């Protein structure tokens, strides 16, 4: 009785322990899953913001282009009008000279006529006395008188004609001047308009720069959130990973390609240019080269993963996870069981990569380890 009671007690305690452990496990993972969901939602939100930002950038760029076009058009028009003003100015100068000449001619003619009139007045309206006194006969006198009248009339007519001509030139000059002042006013307006356009363009450029700055921040935020999500996912995987690792040595993940271009450990990152832990090994594999599972296990990730590009992650049990990054094509699906040596992807250069290669990681309980001892 005593013995069986003890045994019962032990079994009961074991059951309770198992139950508690499982509850603890379930609770832990569910809280992390909840956190992961939140982070994924945050990523979605930020991505939406980024999309909106990119759309706005496109709109603003289109507006800037349109403003540039308008400014160019205004500039061309101003140049054209300026040319016309220059031509008009020349025309005005010419007309001015014509007018001066016409006035001089009129003055001259007036002078001659005035002199004649003075002579006529002095000689008691008989007119042109000197000419008349030179007449040799009465007939001569009459014909001379007639001639003088005619000349005088002609002189008057010529003067009237000259005055008409002067009026005509003056009108022409006034027309040109009003044309010029109209065009000057036009240019003033256009310059004001152009300034306004340039101010708008400046404002648009400022908005665009702000948008670009914002989008960079949003992108950085997405990167950060992705890294955080990956960390949480890793925690979940670690907690869900059960049993002991029994797989032994791992297979070389890129059969036929032996050259390691970058070992595990601290190095200057080829793209980021700062000292960073290289979390795996890089193996030179051409695009399309076959990548295989390093051991038996379950595919826990087969999708794009930030800087890793297209990635396969395999859980081999006991907290051992292998990762194959920068693939061009994935041949397995999440949840699928794979065998050691089974083709899982084709090599490539997706994500943060300078050229086709396989980045291979071996993680133990979520921590990066040097893959070399695992595959040798
Ligand atoms: Zn690498």
Automatic annotation (TrEMBL):
Signal sequence, start to end: 1-26
Keyword terms, alphabetized: Coiled coil, Signal
Listed Pfam families: CC_PcsB, Peptidase_M23
InterPro entries: Cell_wall_metabolism_enzyme, Dup_hybrid_motif, M23ase_b-sheet_dom, PcsB_CC
Domain M23ase beta-sheet core: 277-371
Coiled coil: 29-112, 162-238
Record domain Peptidoglycan hydrolase PcsB coiled-coil: where: 100-172
Highest taxon listed in the record's lineage: Bacteria
GO terms of molecular function: metalloendopeptidase activity
Name used for this protein in its record: Peptidoglycan DD-metalloendopeptidase family protein
UniProt lineage: Bacteria, Bacillati, Bacillota, Clostridia, Eubacteriales
């Amino acid at each position: 009785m005593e013995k069986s009671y003890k045994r019962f007690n032990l079994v009961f305690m074991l059951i309770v322990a198992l139950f508690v452990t499982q509850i603890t496990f379930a609770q832990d993972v569910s809280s992390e899953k909840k956190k992961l969901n939140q982070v994924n939602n945050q990523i979605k939100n930020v991505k939406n913001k980024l999309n909106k930002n990119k759309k706005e950038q496109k709109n603003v760029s289109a507006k800037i282009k349109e403003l540039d076009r308008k400014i160019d058009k205004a500039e061309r028009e101003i140049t054209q009008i300026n040319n016309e003003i220059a031509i008009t100015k020349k025309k005005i100068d010419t007309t001015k000279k014509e007018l001066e000449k016409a006035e001089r001619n009129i003055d001259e003619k007036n002078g001659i006529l005035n002199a004649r009139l003075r002579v006529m007045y002095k000689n008691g309206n008989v007119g042109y006395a000197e000419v008349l006194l030179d007449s040799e006969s009465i007939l001569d006198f009459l014909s001379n008188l007639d001639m003088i009248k005619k000349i005088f009339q002609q002189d008057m007519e010529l003067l009237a004609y000259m005055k008409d001509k002067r009026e005509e030139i003056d009108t022409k000059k006034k027309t040109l001047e009003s044309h010029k002042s109209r065009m000057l006013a036009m240019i003033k307006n256009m310059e004001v308009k152009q300034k306004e356009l340039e101010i708008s363009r400046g404002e648009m450029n400022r908005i665009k720069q702000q948008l670009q700055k914002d989008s960079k921040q949003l992108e950085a935020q997405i990167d950060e959130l992705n890294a955080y999500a990956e960390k949480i996912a890793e925690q979940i995987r670690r907690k869900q990973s059960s049993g002991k690792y029994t797989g032994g040595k791992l297979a070389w993940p890129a059969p036929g390609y032996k050259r390691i271009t970058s070992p595990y450990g601290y190095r200057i990152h080829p793209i980021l240019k700062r000292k960073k832990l290289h979390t795996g090994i890089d193996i030179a594999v051409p695009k399309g080269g076959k990548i295989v599972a390093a051991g038996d296990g379950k595919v826990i990730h087969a999708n794009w993963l930030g800087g890793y590009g297209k990635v396969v992650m395999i859980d081999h049990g006991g907290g051992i996870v292998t990762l194959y990054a920068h693939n061009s094509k994935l041949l397995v699906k999440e949840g699928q069981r794979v065998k050691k040596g089974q083709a899982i992807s084709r090599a490539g250069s997706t994500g943060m990569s300078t050229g086709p290669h396989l980045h291979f990681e071996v993680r133990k309980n979520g921590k990066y380890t040097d893959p070399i001892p695992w595959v040798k």
